[in-house]
Amino acid sequence: MSILKLNSSNGNVMAENKTLDAVKKCLRDFPLEARELYLNKTVPCLEPPFSPLEFYREWIGPNKPCVIRNAFSHWPALSKWNPSHLREVVGSKVISVAVTPNGYADAVNQDRFVMPEERLMTFSSLLDVVEGKVESRGVFYVQKQCSNLTEELPELTGDVEAHIPWMSEALGKLPDAVNFWLGEASAVTSMHKDHYENLYCVITGEKHFILLPPSDRPFIPYEHYQPAVYRQREDGDFDVVDVADSDKVPWIPLDPLKPDLELYPDYRLACPLHVTVKAGEMLYLPSLWFHHVRQSHGCIAVNFWYDMEYDIKYNYFQLVESLAGAVGPL
Q1: Cα 82–Cα 83–Cα 84 angle in degrees, nearest 5
Q2: DSSP class per residue in 29-40
């Protein structure tokens, strides 16, 4: 190779490195600017009354979370949904329950993205496990996200609203799904994001959320994993069984409760928000916000999923996600 060609090649490499460094700097600065311009340092609390337009302007449009107190104090569920009442009303109903060995459903386990064993059991049998009346290996969690309240437990729908009127008016649509959640304290929802505007209503107990805004995406690692499912053997132990003929799943391997900062040093730049949502409180969790969820033992919640608008904000997020995935560590 001639000296001229060598110099030309070195020049191209230097130019490419300079461009890559510039993109990385933009990705580092972008979340910092978002925090300075509009994001709150904590999750604010508010109370009704407020108009649908006001809520849209203050929270949905800016894509900011908040906790709303006394938003559903008129629901009969708040006073009725105890184990005794649930046994009486839906005890014999067969529902779908997620069972895992460690409480982590839909989460990374070593080199696999492992989904729970979906077990059909009566509601009373689930309560027996949650209340400690029977011993069972594994962690049990009602978490099926296909409007399981209306599909599996319609007897309970009269104790809550079919939708949240001011949210439905603000968005001009009804919710896509209304989900019922009940589980053990060991059940954990690993960090992920949803394409929904989410109103999460805690009926009993409390939920502990770790939240990160979409603008922190450059600091959040993603990897691709072979999907698998847990299968419990007759001796009580669990196997991890690969899902055949399936594409790899992109998922977040980092656990925000104990982040491996040596393996994922960019996460040092993230600024997670911690919020506890208590019984009678509602969390507005905006679309595309990353969240990790824990709960008190036996906590019951209902959430409403409204489909997000696939507008310019979604396009912006997709651009940031594509760039973050392309440039590697910052």
Answers
A1: 95
A2: HHHHHHHHHT--
Does the domain formed by 15-327 have CATH 2.60.120.10?
Answer: yes
283: β partners: 67, 200
The pLDDT value recorded for residue 52 is 98
User: What residue spans define the domains of the chain?
Assistant: 15-327
Q: Which of 106, 288, 321, 330 is nearest to 222 (CA)?
A: 321
CA proximity to 321, closest of 272, 262, 250:
250
Question: How many residues in the chain?
Answer: 330
Interatomic CA distance for residues 109 and 130, integer angstroms: 24
Instruction: Please list the ranges in the chain whose pLDDT falls under 50.
Output: 1, 3-4, 6
**How far lies 102's CA from each of 98, 139, 189, 193, in Å?**
11, 6, 11, 22
pLDDT digits (tens, 9 = 90+) for 230-282: 999 999 999 999 999 999 999 999 999 999 999 999 999 999 999 999 999 99
**Contact by Cβ (8 Å): 286, 63:** yes
Are 142 and 118 contacting, i.e. CB atoms less than 8 angstroms apart? no
| Distance between first and last Cα of the chain | 34
Of 220, 250, 209, 181, the C-alpha closest to 320 is 220
Helix, strand and coil percent figures for the chain, each rounded to 5: 35, 30, 35
